[in-house]
Specification:
The chain is mostly beta strands. The model has no long low-confidence stretch (mean pLDDT 84). The strands form 5 sheets. Strands 1-2-3 form a 3-stranded antiparallel beta sheet. Strands 9-6-13 form a 3-stranded antiparallel beta sheet, with no helix packed on it. Strands 10-11-12 form a 3-stranded antiparallel beta sheet, with no helix packed on it.
Length: 114
Amino acid sequence: MEDIKLNLPNCLKCNSQYTYQDGELFICPECAYEWTVDEQVEEGLVVKDANGNILVDGDAVVVMKDLKVKGSSSTLKIGTKVKNIRLVEGDHNIDCKIDGFGAMKLKSEFVKKA
């Protein structure tokens, strides 16, 4: 028997690849999240962390490697927790405030969801 992979979207909540469709609903068996095709289109800006987890406004993230800060001689150390992020369009798609550094933009590929 041949395995047939349908082009179903990953779960919008937990990013699981094991989603299935039941009528007009998509369902995730791992977290039990249900959504419609309309919600999939409305999602628009989808930002994922270094592990592939979907980030949303207000999440907390942890920096995964030392990052040089432009215009400063200091670096943002690995393990720094950043709370209450905001997602934006562009290369640096996380807008946040970091204690000791102030307002900053980060790339999602260098953070993981806390």
